[in-house]
Amino acid sequence: MRASQDELIRGGAARRGGRRRVFAATVLAAAMALTACTSGGGGDGDKSSSWQGGGESGPKAAATITEPAADAKDVPASTAVTFTTKEAQETTVELKDSAGKAVEGQLAKDGKSWLPDGALAYGQTYTATVTATGDDGKPATATSTFTTMAKPGKQIRATSFLGDNQVVGVAMPLIVKFGRAIPEDYRDDLQRRMTVTSKPAQEGIWHWISPTEVHYRPKSYWKANSTVSYKVQAGGLPLGDGWYGRSDLTVDVKIGPSFVMTVDNRTKKMTVTKDGKVIKTILVSLGKKSTPSSSGTMVVIEKLRHTVFDTMEELGPEEGYRTEIDYAQRLTWGGEFIHAAPWSEGVQGRTNVSHGCVNVSMKDGNWLFANTRMGDPITVKGTERKLQNGNGWTDWNMSWDEYVKGSAVPYEPPAAPGDDTSPGADEPSVTPTP
């Protein structure tokens, strides 16, 4: 364009009396230059202009942010960035606060949403940018600036039964409790924000015990000496009736050796295995016919070096008793324990005389107490009474098919072996994905 303008000026200057034509040509050239800079509606520096890009086309890919909408107000602090893309080979998401500081987060496996690693600040402005790049290598971007809601007055607290770095047995369920009942319609939203990461990888799922309590267990016992991290990303999450999650919760625990106890009523013996090998056989006395022990798989809930069993109020003065007990390990809320019972040592291995507990000798009670952990499993077989689900941590008293029915999110089996999306043997598993 500049070359053409120079030629017009030079040609006009060679003519006498040609000043008016030179001026007209110059104005025309300027008008043409202005038209070229705004061609195609691209504005200053538009690369699609034939004047500057040589006919270069725009990107093949496209991106659209669906939530939060541009200029949205009162957005929950738990918000994810959801979006759609077209012909994208690669998609990235960036979220920044009003000061330009980036917020860390993770892209969902389905590639349709992005979740911050934690709840956003209340009453703050953020800008989300989604960049989609097609096979032509050209990026297309979409942005949305939004403002989070003010801190709500009605908040629900989430608490974990376990604490960081606690070492537990291979049957320990992960237990999360809420300060208020979670309506059924909101449990799936919450459960999708509850992730479990284990190394090595293990399949598992959440199971709602009640409206205020949810447990997680793997399909089989935890692998010995594995590490488990779980996160409840409830901060700012709507939980019904104007209530919101109070904060996020993250816990890291360790799984100890595999210590499994099996009691057979027929033989009146307990078999103890550690990491798959039998290490001890113990004589026991179970509950007599009027107060039988429960058959099923239970978990050590708590350990009491010395305590007092007092059933006087429950059973009355004729049947009740008040007895000092050593090496007690609770198995049910109803009062079944493993404990030392020196008064029954003469019949242990032969006759059931307890009120439902697993009686062992003082020596064996001491040994068990020194070697067990909270979360170690015990299975009792062949008694007159079946263990009732809910009477203790009975997560393992249900089959896997029964257990998954307690999930608020439909169960999806993991990818088949050999699938590129499945974790390797030494890679962590994350369940579920938001």
The number of distinct β-strands equals: 28
Largest sheet: 6 strands, mixed
Distance between the termini: 55 Å
Radius of gyration: 34 Å
> In order across it, which strands form the biggest sheet?
20-19-18-26-21-27
Mean pLDDT over the residues: 85
What gross morphology would you assign?
A: elongated
What level of helicity do the residues show? 10-25%
Oligomer: single chain
Number of helices: 7
Model description:
This protein is 15% helix and 35% strand. The protein has 434 residues and is of the alpha+beta class. Strand 23 and strand 24 form a beta hairpin. Helix 1 (2-13) runs antiparallel to helix 2 (19-37). It is elongated and about 95 Å long.
Key terms:
single chain; 434 residues; alpha+beta; 7 helices; 35% strand; disordered N terminus
How would you briefly describe this protein structure?
The protein has helices spanning 2-13, 19-37, 50-53, 184-191, 312-319, 362-371, 400-404, and strands at 62-67, 81-86, 90-97, 105-107, 113-116, 125-133, 139-147, 155-156, 158-160, 166-168, 174-178, 194-199, 204-210, 213-218, 227-232, 244-245, 249-255, 259-264, 269-274, 277-283, 294-299, 302-310, 322-330, 337-340, 358-360, 377-381, 385-386, 429-431. It is an alpha+beta fold. It starts with a helix and ends with a strand.
Strand and helix layout:
Blueprint: H1 2-13, H2 19-37, H3 50-53, E1 62-67, E2 81-86, E3 90-97, E4 105-107, E5 113-116, E6 125-133, E7 139-147, E8 155-156, E9 158-160, E10 166-168, E11 174-178, H4 184-191, E12 194-199, E13 204-210, E14 213-218, E15 227-232, E16 244-245, E17 249-255, E18 259-264, E19 269-274, E20 277-283, E21 294-299, E22 302-310, H5 312-319, E23 322-330, E24 337-340, E25 358-360, H6 362-371, E26 377-381, E27 385-386, H7 400-404, E28 429-431
Parallel strand pairs: 8-16, 10-17, 18-26, 21-27, 24-25
Antiparallel strand pairs: 1-2, 2-5, 3-6, 4-5, 6-7, 9-11, 11-14, 12-15, 12-28, 13-14, 15-17, 18-19, 19-20, 21-26, 22-23, 23-24
Helix pairs in contact: 1-2
